[in-house]
Automatic annotation (TrEMBL):
The keyword Chaperone does not apply. It is an enzyme of class 1 (oxidoreductase). Pathway: Amino-acid biosynthesis. Keywords: Amino-acid biosynthesis, Glutamate biosynthesis, Oxidoreductase. Residues 24-130 form the Dihydroprymidine dehydrogenase domain. Residues 146-327, 383-470 form the FAD/NAD(P)-binding domain. It comes from the Bacteria. This is Glutamate synthase. Its EC number is 1.4.1.13. Pfam families: Fer4_20 (PF14691), Pyr_redox_2 (PF07992). GO terms for molecular function: glutamate synthase (NADPH) activity; iron-sulfur cluster binding; oxidoreductase activity, acting on the CH-NH2 group of donors, NAD or NADP as acceptor.
Length: 501
């Protein structure tokens, strides 16, 4: 029986982050392990409220009160079983998920701070790995059916694991030189050290999943060949088409880049250093990828922008400004606009924000300013108001509000426009919709025998949604192949996050 008064006895506490001067001098994760005592205390704050809205907040339907109570009572072995029953990769979500479950925690109804669900999750996952590694769970018998998974992000990997464990022969095709999708080269090591991906890959390999890196489906191998060699295909190619701003004067200057160009290159340098290999030192246009000594301007307010901020500080930037089009959000939930248990519009500060830099809200770039040699020297910004008219966003600069911010390096982190336009789409007979995503039927098929999941289907989203969609698409493929029994399907293709409107 959970402790009904735990939340009255204990306040919400997270482990202390590593001190800023220490952590920006390396690329290690920001959070040290929390320690068993703190996690047991925090798990005790879960009162097992009877109708756990956190289940609905989590797209995976993680059984949060169950594993909170198992941690409280010291049953870590059983807790990890419960966690793995719904989540293939809790060590990823426990580190990276923005935790919509916590926004839906019933404690929030009474004005209390939510349970630290995400922290408990990662500690359960890490404790299991430390105890006896990630034990492979190969299928008891092969089905003789074969599936190609295109794309090795969390959606592709979750589907691959589910299908391999059900006995199907799974081959994951990845055009990059390493497996992991955005987890590998998009998300920096200070949020997710890559050893966590490598440990999972060892488990997947031992479970029979085959990996083919450096293979771009649609170019190096045709869709026709893939369909001939496999009984079903899952497309999980992500939503990596970066939004740009070609109309802004000066966009073509040297030093103005898509955030991902800088971020991926920077992450590759870290990966190369870790492997003792020489670092890749420049972007394709010859710009050194290093922000050292530079005035950096990051345009955008999401995960990508925060990751650029952390990277810039670790590279030794002289100063960083982060610009956001929208006004500064409130620091408390606006119950009129976003009632509990929905995901509230709030000022979200990542650990990268306490490392330095200045956030500037309600501004838009009017021009990237040339230093006279074709290199950016500043951005000219104006204060703006933003309103929605007939679904369209209207941005209005305030007269007389323009000013310049010095900039040697400008990073555009203004979102993604869906999955990339690439040969694979036409070859498989699928098309991008108005949002740049690929629609599916209710059974996850985008064309006969061709399934789609993750960001490619949903548009740029979250790791927890990618895993949920990968699991659900795997269940649909298993049924399509006539597999015995049913695999878990936490979401259907139309499922949306909890929302009031
Ligand atoms: C910088 C950044 C930071 C983020 N931080 C967070 C975070 O902290 N928390 C969070 O929850 N979410 C975060 N996200 C979002 C999250 O990473 C994505 O939602 C998630 O990775 C989507 O998973 P996916 O498997 O659908 O696609 P992806 O991870 O994008 O993987 C798709 C893979 O498909 C491969 N591919 C594409 N086309 C082909 C082809 N033709 N042949 C072979 N391979 C192909 C790509 O190379 C890629 O490896 C972040 C995103 C970015 C960009
Ligand atoms: S995956 Fe995300 S939403 Fe689900 S329990 Fe973990 S932190 Fe919460």
């Amino acid at each position: 029986m959970p402790d009904p008064n735990g939340f009255l006895r204990y306040d919400r506490r997270l482990p202390a982050r590593r001190p800023v001067p220490v952590r920006i001098s390396d690329w290690r994760e920001v959070y040290p392990p929390a320690g068993e005592e703190l996690i047991r205390e925090q798990a005790t704050r879960c009162m097992d409220c009877g109708i756990p809205f956190c289940h609905d907040g989590c797209p995976l339907g993680n059984r949060i009160p169950d594993w909170n109570d198992l941690v409280r009572t010291g049953n870590w072995d059983v807790a990890v079983e419960s966690l793995h029953a719904t989540n293939n990769f809790p060590e990823f979500t426990g580190r990276l998920c923005p935790a919509p479950c916590e926004a839906a925690c019933v404690l929030g109804l009474g004005g209390q701070q939510p349970v630290t669900i995400k922290q408990v999750e990662v500690e359960i996952a890490d404790a299991a790995v430390a105890r006896d590694g990630l034990r492979p769970r190969p299928a008891s018998a092969p089905t003789g059916r074969s599936v190609a998974v295109v794309g090795s992000g969390p959606a592709g990997l979750a589907a691959a694991q589910q299908l391999a464990r059900a006995g199907h022969t799974v081959t994951v095709y990845e055009r990059d030189d390493a497996i992991g999708g955005l987890l590998r080269y998009g998300i920096p090591d200070f949020k997710l050290e890559k050893q966590h991906i490598d440990k999972r890959l060892a488990q997947l390999t031992a479970e029979g999943v085959r990996f083919r890196t450096g293979v771009e489906v649609g170019v190096d191998v045709t869709a026709e060949r893939l369909r001939a060699e496999h009984d079903a295909v899952l497309l999980a190619c992500g939503a990596l088409q970066g939004r740009d701003t070609p109309e802004t004067p000066g966009r073509a200057l040297r030093g103005v880049h898509q955030a991902m160009a800088h971020l991926v290159a920077a992450n590759r340098v870290v990966a190369a250093a870790g492997n003792g290999r020489p670092a890749l030192a420049t972007l394709p246009d010859g710009t050194p990828i290093d922000a050292a000594g530079k005035h950096v301007v990051i345009i955008g307010g999401g995960d990508t922008a925060a990751d650029c901020l952390g990277v810039a500080h670790r590279q030794g930037a002289a100063g960083v400004h982060q610009l956001d089009l929208y006004p500064q959000p409130p620091s408390e939930r606006d119950a009129e606009r976003d009632p509990w248990p929905t995901w509230p519009w709030l000022l979200r500060s990542y650990p990268a924000h306490e490392e330095g830099g200045e956030r500037v809200f309600a501004v838009a770039v009017q021009e990237f300013v040339d230093d006279g040699t074709g290199q950016v020297r500043a951005v000219r910004i104006a204060e703006v108001t933003v309103e929605k008219v007939d679904g369209r966003r209207i941005v209005t600069p305030l007269p007389g509000s323009e000013r310049e911010i010095p900039a040697d390096l400008v990073l555009l982190a203004i979102g993604f426009e869906g999955t990339e336009q690439q040969p694979l789409l036409a070859q498989f007979g699928v098309t991008r919709n108005a949002r740049g995503a690929v629609d599916s039927r209710p059974d996850w098929q985008a064309a006969d025998g061709v399934f789609v999941a993750g960001d490619m289907h949903r548009g740029a989203s979250l790791i927890v949604w990618a895993i949920a969609e990968g699991r659900a698409a795997a269940a649909a493929i298993h049924a399509y192949l006539g597999g015995v029994g049913e695999l878990p399907a936490p979401v259907d293709p139309a499922r949306q996050p909890l929302a009031a409107r």
